[in-house]
Amino acid sequence: MEQRRTYYNTKMQVRLLEALLAKLPSLDAPVRQPATRSKPGRVKHLDAAQTQKLIAGYRGGATVYELGREFGVSRQTVSTILHRHGIEMRMGRLAAEAIDEAVRLYESGWSLARIGDRLGASVGTVRNRLLERGVTMRDSHGRAR
Predict the structure, then answer these.
(1) For a disulfide at 73, which of 18, 77, 110, 133, Cβ 3.0-4.6 Å?
(2) pTM summary value
(3) What pLDDT, in 10s, does the model give residues 22-67?
(4) Is 144 helix (H, G, I), strand (E, B) or coil?
């Protein structure tokens, strides 16, 4: 076995090296500066009037994301403020009547997604509430698991 065989086609290797060299920046090109990142800002505190307006907005149906954008804070901050003031969160909660309806619909053959669309809840929320009620889940073919 000859050792030259591996390096026999040097023209192809030269072309590949030239292509790589063409991709490199020229030595006289200016050096790119790394992107500067903004420093984290200070935490924004809402005064009493803003807090009351935030609570009223949430009770009026606004989401924590909408309120966060409106007041310039994160959704976590909005949630923290609402919890601090004893406001019950709407996140994925279903009323007892809605859970009863979900159980009835699921047992009549409806899918979790269809029930969630009807009740305005996510598939995961519907599934969790059904499991809490002891409902046996079906597989993707409608068979009991």
Answers:
(1) 77
(2) 0.42
(3) 888 888 878 878 877 777 766 678 899 999 999 999 888 888 888 9
(4) strand
Distance CA 80, CA 70 (A): 16
Q: Which residue has the tokens 């923290």?
A: 80
106: its two tokens: 């699921």
Mind listing the pLDDT tens digit for each residue in 87-104?
888 765 677 888 899 999
The span from the CA of 80 to the CA of 86, in Å, is 10
Listing DSSP states for 99-143 in one string gives: HHHHHHHHHTT--HHHHHHHHT--HHHHHHHHHHTTPPPB-TTS-
Question: What are the tokens at 44?
Answer: 């924004």
